[in-house]
Design goal:
Layout lengths: L1 H17 L3 H7 L5 E4 L2 E4 H15 E14 L2 E12 L12 E13 L2 E9 L1 H19 L2
Parallel strand pairs: 1-6
Antiparallel strand pairs: 1-2, 3-4, 4-5, 5-6
Length: about 140
């Protein structure tokens, strides 16, 4: 079962993020699953979708790479990296068209073959630094 769980987590990143399939959230995320992301927590698809929408409104060309996955019993830990282009204003800052690369880890607990609870940590600070540097460079280049 561990291998099946490992493949399900990898499929989540492929379907939801790489393919941008919003409907895959409903297909793969049970209503009672809780996703913890730092101090934020979302329960089920309806609470997770606004985060998905903000990310898709802010970034295009999203490409998540599954770097290493470990599965044991009902738990999978996946180390991943992502590259994406900051092309939208969805995070409250002007688009920079900057390609951003960050890393993260996700730990997923399964129950009855489905996601039960997830914890993820990703380099949001590094992402903001890369966007901020692009914003500063853009301001410098356009200053009179």
């Amino acid at each position: 079962m561990s291998e099946q769980h490992r493949q399900t987590v990898i499929r989540w990143f492929e379907e939801v993020w790489n393919k941008g399939r919003r409907d895959a959230i409903d297909e793969m995320l049970p209503a009672d699953c809780v996703i913890h992301d730092g101090e934020a927590a979302w329960r089920g698809p309806e609470e997770f979708k606004p985060f998905f929408d903000r990310m898709r409104a802010s970034f295009s060309d999203i490409r998540v790479t599954s770097e290493h996955a470990i599965a044991e019993g009902d738990v999978v830990c996946l180390r991943w990296s992502v590259s994406m282009r900051h092309t939208g204003d969805g995070m409250g800052m002007p688009a920079t068209d900057k390609e951003v690369s960050i890393t993260g880890m996700s730990l997923v607990r399964f129950k009855d073959g489905r996601f039960a609870e997830c914890w993820q940590n990703w380099d949001m600070y590094g992402m903001m630094q890369q966007i901020n540097e692009a914003t500063k460079a853009k301001a410098y280049m356009t200053a009179e």
